[in-house]
Design goal:
Number of domains of chain B: 2
Largest sheet of chain A: 5 strands, mixed
CATH superfamily of the largest domain in chain A: NADH-ubiquinone oxidoreductase 51kDa subunit
Distance between the termini of chain B: 29 Å
Strand content of chain A: 15-25%
Oligomer: heterodimer
Structural class of chain A: alpha/beta
Number of strands of chain A: 14
Largest interface: A-B, 54 and 43 residues
Strand order of the largest sheet of chain B: 2-1-3-4
Distance between the termini of chain A: 64 Å
CATH architecture of the largest domain in chain A: 3-Layer(aba) Sandwich
Radius of gyration of chain A: 25 Å
CATH class of the largest domain in chain B: Alpha Beta
Bound molecules: flavin mononucleotide, iron/sulfur cluster, FE2/S2 (inorganic) cluster
Strand content of chain B: 5-15%
Radius of gyration of chain B: 18 Å
Number of helices of chain A: 18
Chain lengths: 452, 157
């Protein structure tokens, strides 16, 4: 299987090596095409965003105004902060020139004269690597005004890196734009959409690093070629980042539609100690977790995963073996979303706090089975009621983890019973009690010890 | 105590300013440069950024308080960041975190008395395939064990 994004070619981060291996053929071809035809080719390829939402890339580009009355911007999303995701970093390190070539083609297609690559602040060393690659391309006349000569076109663009500074929310596209503008990373209410009103009020397209890195090969080899790889409705390859309880964690580039079990057992080397799998989160920590006993036959593409009850997200696969304490996992996930909520909307700000608090209460042995229902309720009240999708990202793990692993969570809470008890005026009142322990014996029947 | 950017850093800020149509956008780069020169972002650093870029000081403060990588207090010469998010947790992230805290005798976000080390529990650093991982200043250390981590600490002078 041919790799598109991370080919096994040594020293590909060297510009000469990249060019010797067909680098910039896509860009050269693109500049001989009209902008519309470039967008058409990307539409034909069926390429979908690799940043989490899976939106069609060609369609997104076509939302940009055709006649240019204001500056246009391209913002490339390399925030990569979704827990379980570590793929874009491989591109900065191993194939930076293909990302830059993709940027040139995308910028041409949407008429963006300025491009910002937003990279999380922690990736300091990878920012240096990418900056070196950008500098090399300026020197070679692939970027800046010299492009016009090199590619025989009247278009040129400049590319800058914007370094983030530690805030998960800045991966959300409108927060990312605020961050580039030098503001706090608060998501913006949509509409207006970025293609009308993005960076400094100008038309802007936001695409993930991996998405853009696919583009040169699509233009060089044609949209049909790309569309024939992997799952028809979500074609191409994905960089699957496998982590957690596997023998060979790492990033594996494989066609969409590859079996999840194939990735875990054949590529990532299976589970240490041959243990059973209890739970898999297939696309980064925001995505609904799957039960280990339900992953047989699940394919890794957007539609198949939706059918299986989850989502492809960033393709970050987190594997948990049978000994994993899912309460600890869910508590850690909920702590993350509470910590990263920007606090703009009440359901997200308060809800993430409640969920963490309730889970902590359960962890401290103080939880009751009603708390589990309460958690699901709180999650459902966040879902779909917030400015940005962080709300959903916080709600889904809680809702689905508890619904799908209720048996396990019941073990950590005390059951509750409703018993009619006489009160002072000798009438019966129904009260709810938490049960400390239940004893069943043939001699004494059922004995409930109630919690005071 | 007033703070002034060095000539070289003023040039770097000027370069950063050129990337954007507004000077506000250069605040994040300027904050990094200020933190690098001063060790942390004090009131004086913010005032100087506000003066150099000609943006309101409240805007600088807004940025500094929003992003976790900007420090308003001095941190250690070696700032140790330990990831305890899920993929790292599953492979012993908390044991690594505890081992470092014990060794240094400090808690989360504290600095050792000699100013050499500080420790911070961080969210996923995008290195889950090398879990458990830590970062010391800007450098990543992956596939950590308690032994390896203690060895690394010993080697930092
Ligand atoms: C809370 C949150 C965090 C996100 N983080 C990232 C991220 O780190 N990287 C990314 O590419 N997209 C991220 N996204 C998705 C972006 O908003 C956007 O959809 C994506 O960058 C578009 O690019 P694509 O169409 O090429 O996927 C995030 C979304 C949300 C709601
Ligand atoms: S959903 Fe959460 S993170 Fe998103 S805007 Fe609202 S408060 Fe902020
Ligand atoms: S969970 Fe630790 S680096 Fe991702």
């Amino acid at each position: 299987m041919e790799k598109i994004v991370l080919p096994d070619i040594p020293n590909l981060d060297n510009l000469d090596v990249y060019i010797e291996n067909g680098g910039f053929e896509g860009a050269k071809k693109a500049f001989q095409m009209s902008r519309e035809d470039v967008i058409e080719e990307v539409k034909k390829s069926g390429l979908r965003g690799r940043g989490g939402a899976g939106f069609f890339t060609g369609l997104k580009w076509s939302f940009m105004p055709r006649t240019k009355t204001k500056p246009h911007y391209l913002a490339v999303n390399g925030d990569e902060s979704e827990p379980g995701s570590f793929k874009d970093r491989q591109i900065f390190e191993k194939n930076p020139h293909q990302l830059i070539e993709g940027i040139i083609i995308a910028a041409y297609a949407i008429q963006a004269e300025t491009v910002y690559i937003y990279i999380r602040g922690e990736y300091y060393n990878w920012i240096q690597m990418l900056q070196k690659a950008i500098d090399a391309n300026y020197e070679r006349g692939h970027l800046g005004e010299k492009m016009r000569e090199t590619f025989n076109t009247d278009f040129y663009c400049n590319v800058y890196i914007h370094r983030g500074a530690g805030a998960y929310i800045c991966g959300e596209e409108s927060a990312l734009m605020n961050s580039i503008e030098g503001r706090r990373g608060y998501p913006r209410v949509k509409p207006p959409f970025p293609a009308q009103n993005g960076l400094w009020g100008n038309p802007t397209t936001i695409n993930n690093v991996e998405t853009i890195t696919n583009v040169p090969k699509i233009i060089a080899n044609g949209g049909e070629w790309f569309a024939s790889i992997g799952a028809p409705k979500h074609p191409g390859t994905l960089l699957f980042g496998v982590s957690g309880h596997v023998n060979k964690p790492g990033v594996y580039e494989l066609p969409t539609g590859t079996l999840l079990t194939d990735i875990i057992y054949n590529y990532a080397g299976g589970v240490p100690g041959n243990k059973k799998i209890k739970c898999v989160i297939p696309g980064g920590s925001s995505m609904p977790p799957l039960r280990g006993d339900s992953i047989e036959g699940v394919k890794m593409d957007a539609d198949s995963l939706r059918e299986a009850g989850s989502m492809i997200g960033t393709g970050g696969i987190m594997v948990m073996d049978e000994d994993t304490n899912l309460l600890d996992v869910l508590l850690r996930i909920s702590h993350f979303y509470h910590h990263e909520s920007c606090g703009q909307c009440t359901p997200c700000r308060e809800g993430t706090g409640w969920m963490e608090k309730i889970l902590r209460r359960i962890k401290n042995g103080q939880g009751t089975s009603r708390d589990l229902d309460l958690l699901v309720d709180v999650a459902k009240n966040i879902e779909g009621r917030t400015v940005c999708a962080l709300g959903d990202a916080a709600a889904w793990p809680v809702k689905f983890m508890i619904e799908r692993f209720r048996d396990e969570f019941e073990k950590y809470v005390k059951p509750e019973v409703v018993i009619p008890v006489p009160n002072k005026i000798h009438s019966l009142k129904h009260s709810t009690f938490t049960v400390e322990s239940i004893k069943i014996s043939s001699k004494d029947g059922i004995q409930l010890k109630l919690d005071n | 105590m007033s703070f002034q950017f060095t000539e070289e850093n003023l040039k770097r800020i000027e370069e950063a300013r050129k990337k954007y149509p507004t000077s506000l956008a250069a605040v994040m780069d300027a904050c990094y440069i200020g933190q690098e020169q001063n060790g942390h972002i004090s009131e004086e650093v913010m005032e100087e950024i506000s003066r150099v870029l000609d943006v309101p000081k409240t805007d600088v403060l807004g940025v500094v308080t929003f992003y976790t990588m900007y420090h308003q207090k001095p941190m250690g010469k070696y700032h140790i960041q330990v990831c305890t998010n899920v993929s790292c947790m599953l492979r012993g992230g908390y044991e690594i975190f505890d081992a470092i805290k014990n060794k240094l005798g400090i808690d989360n976000m504290e600095v050792t008395e000699d100013g050499k080390f500080s420790i911070e529990e961080v969210e996923c650093m995008g290195a889950c395939g090398g879990a458990p991982m830590i970062a010391i200043n800007n450098d990543y250390y992956e596939n950590m064990t308690k032994e390896k981590v203690l060895e690394i600490l010993e080697s930092l002078k």
